[in-house]
Amino acid sequence: MEPLLEVSGLKTEFLTPDGVVRAVDGVDFTLHRGETLGIVGESGCGKSVTSLSVMRLLAKDTSRIAGGKILFEGRDLLTLPEKEVQSLRGNRIAMIFQEPMTSLNPVFKIGNQIVEALRFHLKLGKKEASDKAVELLKRVGIPRPEMIAKEYPHQLSGGMRQRVMIAMAMACNPSVLIADEPTTALDVTIQAQILNLMRKLQEENETAILLITHDLGVVAEMCERVVVMYAGQVVEEALVKDLFKNPQHPYTKGLLKSLPSLAGKEKRLSSIPGQVPNPLEMPKGCRFAPRCSEWRSHCEGVQPELTLVAPGHQCRCLLSKGGSR
C-alpha cells in the first residue's frame, strides 16, 4: 500500500545572526491511511520543526527547507505554489498545535473561527457553516455547544480549548492530522479524554495521525510505529511493541530507563547525562556520542547511518545489530 505521506531526506535550516542552524537533518518517514505514527525526542530534537516543515508554516525570512521531499498522495508539497498549499492546509492536512491559546485568535469568538475555515475550504453558506460549527463542537464532547460557540478563547479551560482545536482540525475530514504535543499542560484525566477523542475521530474517518510528543506513555497507548529523533536526526524507527521490547539505540534505551515503573524498586529515576548539543557546534561523528554510556573508541568521528537491524526496525548506531563493530 502506497503511503499517504512520505518524507524523505528533509533538511530544514534557520538563519541566525551566529550562522545557519540545521534543525532537521535528513529525516525520513512514511505515514499510511488510518495509522498513527509517533515522533518522540527531547525538546530541541527537531520534531516540531519537522511538522511545521510538512505544513509549510515556517517563516520564509528566517528559515528554509534546504533539501528533501514531502510527498502527499504522490505530490511534492515543497514544489507546489503557495495557493495550492493553502487549499490543502487545514483541509486535507490539518494540525493541532501544542498551545491552543497561541493558535486561537483571542479577539474572535470560537464559532466564528470554525466558520471561517468551513467557508474557506468547503464553500458553505454562513448559516450552514454556523450549524456545522456547533455540530463539530458537540462531536468533540463540548457541552452547551451553542453557547460555547459564542464565547472567546480566554473564557474556556485548557481542555476545552484543546477540544476546540481538534474540532477545527477535523472540520474538513482531513486525510492527515498532525498533533504537536496535544496533551501538554493538561492534567491526566483531560489528557486521557483528548487521546480517546482523537482515537474515536480517527476510527470514524480513517485519518492518519502524526503524533509529536515527548511522552512515551502516550506513544505506547496511541501509536503503531514510532520514530525517535535526536539532534535533528532519526536515530531509531520501529513498531511500538518492538521499540519497547528491544530498543537498539543507546538514546532510546536511556529514554525508556527514565520512565517510572510500578514494579521497580529503584529509589531514583535514571537520567541521560549531559545536554543536547548546540546546533551550531554538532559533534563531528555520532551526535549522541558525548552522552552515550555505550561509547567505544571505534565510534570516534564516525557518523553512523540509519541501518535496518530487524524487519521494520532501523537504528543509527555502530553498536546496534546492524552496525559494523
Tell me what the structure shows:
- The chain has an eight-stranded mixed sheet, with helices on both faces. The protein has a four-stranded antiparallel sheet with strand order 2-1-4-5.
- It is an alpha/beta fold and 325 residues long.
- A hairpin with a 2-residue loop joins β11 and β12.
- α4 packs across α5, α5 packs across α7 and α7 packs parallel to α8.
- The longest helix has 18 residues.
- 31% of the residues lie in helices and 24% in strands.
- It is built from eleven helices and twelve strands.
Question: Topology, pairings included?
Answer:
Blueprint: E1 5-16, E2 19-31, E3 36-40, H1 47-55, E4 63-72, E5 75-76, H2 82-88, E6 93-96, H3 100-103, H4 110-122, H5 126-139, H6 145-148, H7 158-169, E7 176-180, H8 188-205, E8 208-213, H9 216-222, E9 225-230, E10 233-239, H10 240-245, H11 250-257, E11 307-310, E12 313-315
Parallel strand pairs: 3-8, 3-9, 6-7, 7-8
Antiparallel strand pairs: 1-2, 1-4, 4-5, 9-10, 10-12, 11-12
Helix pairs in contact: 4-5, 5-7, 7-8
Strand order of the biggest β-sheet: 6-7-8-3-9-10-12-11
Strand content: 15-25%
Fraction in helix: 25-40%
Helix-strand pattern, N to C?
Answer: EEEHEEHEHHHHHEHEHEEHHEE
